[in-house]
Amino acid sequence: MISITGLHKSFGSATVLRGIDLEISQGEVVSVLGSSGSGKSTLIRCINGLEKIDGGRVTVDGFDVSKPRELADARKRSGTVFQLFNLYPHMTAVQNIALAPVEVLNVPRKDAEAEARRLLQQVGLSERADAYPAQLSGGQRQRVGICRALAMKPSYLLLDEVTSALDPEMTAEVLSILANIAKQGTTMVFVTHEIEFARSISTRIAFLDKGQMIADLPTEDFFSDKGMAMPRVAQFLSKMRKD
Amino acid sequence: MRYGDFTPYDLVLLLQGLSVSLALFVSTTLIGLLVGTLWAVIRFYRLPVLAQLVAFIAELLKNSPVLVQLFLVFFGLPAFLKINVTPTEAAVITLSGNSAAFIYVIAVSAIESVGRDQLEAARVFGLNRWQILRRVIAPQAAAFAVGPLTGLLVNQLQVTSLISVIGVIDLTKVGNILNLRTLKPFVVWTIVGALYYLTAKLVAYAGARLETRLRAHTKWKGL
């Protein structure tokens, strides 16, 4: 379980998260919605320990991410997929995926690379297994990014606007893969602007506004009268649907 | 045959001088690479005191003439510490230190050229600092550094000629000896210059080859 209580985070004088409470249990797919600057990405970066939290507590399976000794254990349980892919440019797709299993989990290189090829096959990239990131399209790069996260066999997959840098066609190819992963029962925290997709795969929707979580509802409720009863949510949804 | 004529043995002398220059260049480059990179890593880890000390030493070495440093090591150190420093030792110490200082600068900027996104990607998957440095930063930094490094080394090769003034029989010193004997400065210095030129070209060629290899991943190979 990922448990967030009273999370505060500011950058200098700008407060980005103002007391977030959120619990994510095994098997859930939680989409985090909200307009740009609402703190969605920062929330993910607090879960995987890329940002130091200023107040409150974030634990992953009981491991406190603000404690250096426990952060390593917390990170072993979660896998992050980045908005801008963040692939290692000097490594092939297979090497990108196999690096962490080899270095962190001490998996023999042969096994790690075989597993990497299996993952790439699952996302339809077996032909491109030995290509460098520079030789891949955006959608292909993000599929490699997803495989890289899955290779660590994470309990939780953290997805930070993973389709924001992609055109609609590439977005579709990445989302269909994520839908598959969600079906297999991987717990996901999904920060996104893809509202319709969030609706189709999520069990729950968390809505952030100016650093506060103003809604945390089961998906059906969020998109029904209950969500629409909240002015800020109604406003957001109507705007996003018009675009 | 007159005393002032060139003899076949002069060729041997020139090659001996060249090999001394080359040996000094290669050894001081290797030491400089080792020390300069180590300094850059110290800075990367932001080790307190050591990082500042390293930056200070590099500053001193970069901002004073190599010839002055050479005189300090060869004449100054023995007088101050009451030790014996041979010309070769003085040459190795001075040139290594000088190369290290400039390689430090290149290595620091090469390490900093690797994007934050790379560190974050490695960090979230649990790699420790040493693994990140070795597997993610070093290969990318090396590709970045080879170009400036090649430029530096071509220059450092020419700088080795300074050691002739303290009596190391390198290529320049051999040129000096031949010049004094034959009194044909134009011929002698043209030959010596050409030998430096060819060696420098070789260094530049090796650097270019290495750069192509390290940057292979950025080359578009088609779908």
N→C terminal distance of chain A: 35 Å
Give the proportion of residues in helices of chain A.
40-55%
Q: CATH superfamily of chain A, please? A: P-loop containing nucleotide triphosphate hydrolases
Q: What is the strand content of chain A?
A: 25-35%
What is the third-level CATH name, the topology of chain B? MetI-like fold
Q: Outline the biggest β-sheet of chain B.
A: none
Placed side by side, the strands forming the largest sheet of chain A appear as: 6-7-8-3-9-10
Mean pLDDT of chain A: 92
What multimeric state do the chains show? heterodimer
Strand content of chain B: under 5%
What's the arrangement of secondary structure elements?
The complex is a heterodimer of chains A (243) and B (223).
Chain A: E1 2-11, E2 14-24, E3 29-33, H1 40-47, E4 55-60, E5 63-64, H2 68-77, E6 78-81, H3 93-103, H4 109-122, H5 138-150, E7 156-160, H6 168-183, E8 187-191, H7 195-201, E9 204-209, E10 212-218, H8 219-222, H9 225-228, H10 231-242
Parallel strand pairs in A: 3-8, 3-9, 6-7, 7-8
Antiparallel strand pairs in A: 1-2, 1-4, 4-5, 9-10
Helix pairs in contact in A: 3-4, 3-5, 5-6
Chain B: H1 8-44, H2 50-62, H3 66-81, H4 87-113, H5 116-124, H6 129-159, H7 171-182, H8 185-214
What's the gist of this structure?
The complex is a heterodimer of chains A (243) and B (223). Chain A contains ten helices and ten strands.
Question: What does this protein structure show overall?
Answer:
The complex is a heterodimer of chains A (243) and B (223). Chain A is an alpha/beta fold. Chain A is built from 10 helices and 10 strands. Chain A has a single domain, classed as P-loop containing nucleotide triphosphate hydrolases (Rossmann fold, 3-Layer(aba) Sandwich). In chain A, the strands form 2 sheets. In chain A, strands 6-7-8-3-9-10 form a 6-stranded mixed β-sheet, sandwiched between helices. In chain A, strands 2-1-4-5 form a 4-stranded antiparallel β-sheet, covered by helices on one side. Chain B is mainly alpha-helical and 223 residues long. Chain B has helices spanning 8-44, 50-62, 66-81, 87-113, 116-124, 129-159, 171-182, 185-214. Chain B starts with 7 loop residues before the first helix and ends in a 9-residue tail after the last helix. The model of chain B has no long low-confidence stretch (mean pLDDT 93). The A-B interface holds A 48-50, 72, 75-76, 78-80, 82, 84, 86-91, 99-100, 103-104, 131-135, 148, 152 and B 117-118, 120-127, 131, 135-136, 139-140, 143, 216-223.
